[in-house]
């Protein structure tokens, strides 16, 4: 078996938007990355159109071993129903179900943004912060007519025989608390999945108010890839990505963000900009993180806006001397092992 590992950038845009006119109009789907090792495929996040992109990339659902969710924002999960319901048609998975691994229930409400002018309540007080296991249940319930029809009329097995959801258990010793300590310092990467081809480790990253939010590292015999998820600059991510062969990191254009919210109330605009500042990373900061980690290659994805001029993202090269890529959707990026570059810390 050829184990040369690579990723396929199924979708490279971030944010819960349909990106309109611009240099990249129509060329960037929602964030999703396929990690390919030999004949096995592992999926990280399920952004808009990722199920269709999975097929367009020539990948077969029968190759899929795991779906890994960095956090539960809609732009990372909106196509999960497509994988669950269409992938349910895979035969012969009863003894080898696809793991669906992601954050557990937050356990408590986040604080209300101080820009609020009145009371704010959750839309669904009975389950306001559902984790991965409960989200999959909610999705299956939402499609109960479809599932019942196919089980009773077509004699399909339960979709739970094909997909096995799991909530990531954050180690107690990290000191994690969703409100008081969502991104503890000095988190040691911890294993969340292992098979004969990969070991997947995770760490907590800074994406408030979402908690927990994770980054993942896939380690193989032939190389490693680290996928940041959504995060502000974070020492935990540097630790996870140390000496990684490929770092896939999110990036946002803050100049775009400052001008993008003229059609909402002043309170919503300020709250949204505050979120971007404390929860995301500029291209220059991504370059600094790659240098600090000694990453052998850096690629930017989860690009916000999804239709920016490529020159915006090239700014990462101001602080990173290694190979820098700004991939398009469906690009193949190798993460085969390369010699370690000289690294310096920020």
TrEMBL record:
Pfam families documented for this protein: Lactamase_B (PF00753)
UniProtKB keywords: Endonuclease, Hydrolase, Nuclease
Cell division among keywords: no
CDD domains, per the entry: arylsulfatase_AtsA-like_MBL-fold
Keyword Nuclease applies: yes
Domain Metallo-beta-lactamase: 32-151
Recorded superkingdom: Bacteria
Full protein name: MBL fold metallo-hydrolase
GO molecular function: 3'-tRNA processing endoribonuclease activity
């Amino acid at each position: 078996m050829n184990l040369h590992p690579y990723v396929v950038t199924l979708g490279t845009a971030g944010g819960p938007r349909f990106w309109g006119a611009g240099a990249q109009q129509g060329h960037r789907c929602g964030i999703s990355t396929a990690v390919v090792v030999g004949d096995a495929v592992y999926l990280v996040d399920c952004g808009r159109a990722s199920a269709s992109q999975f097929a367009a990339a020539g990948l077969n659902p029968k190759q899929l071993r795991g779906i890994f969710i960095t956090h539960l924002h809609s732009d990372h999960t909106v196509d999960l129903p497509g994988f669950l319901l269409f992938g349910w048609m895979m035969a012969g998975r009863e003894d080898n179900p696809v793991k669906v691994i992601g954050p557990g229930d937050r356990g408590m409400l986040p604080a209300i943004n101080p820009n609020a002018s009145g009371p704010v309540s959750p839309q669904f007080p009975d389950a306001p912060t559902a984790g991965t296991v409960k989200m999959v249940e909610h999705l299956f319930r939402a499609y109960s007519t479809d599932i019942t029809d196919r089980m009773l009329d077509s004699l399909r097995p339960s979709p739970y025989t094909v997909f096995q959801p799991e909530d990531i258990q954050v180690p107690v010793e990290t000191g994690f608390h969703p409100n008081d300590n969502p991104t503890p310092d000095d988190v040691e990467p911890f294993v969340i999945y292992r098979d004969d081809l990969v070991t997947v480790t995770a760490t907590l990253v800074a994406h408030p108010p979402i908690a927990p939010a994770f980054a993942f590292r896939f380690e193989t015999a032939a190389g490693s890839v680290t996928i940041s998820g959504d995060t502000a600059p974070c020492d935990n991510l540097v630790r996870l990505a140390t000496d990684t062969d490929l770092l896939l990191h999110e990036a946002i254009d803050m100049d775009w963000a400052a001008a993008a919210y003229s059609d909402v109330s002043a309170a919503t605009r300020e709250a949204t900009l505050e979120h971007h500042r404390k929860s995301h990373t500029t291209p220059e900061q991504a370059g600094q993180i790659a240098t600090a980690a000694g990453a052998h290659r850096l690629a930017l994805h989860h690009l916000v806006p999804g239709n920016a001029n490529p020159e915006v993202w090239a700014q990462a090269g101001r602080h990173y001397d290694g190979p820098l890529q700004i991939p398009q959707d469906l690009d193949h990026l190798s993460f085969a092992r390369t010699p370690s570059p000289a690294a310096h810390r920020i």
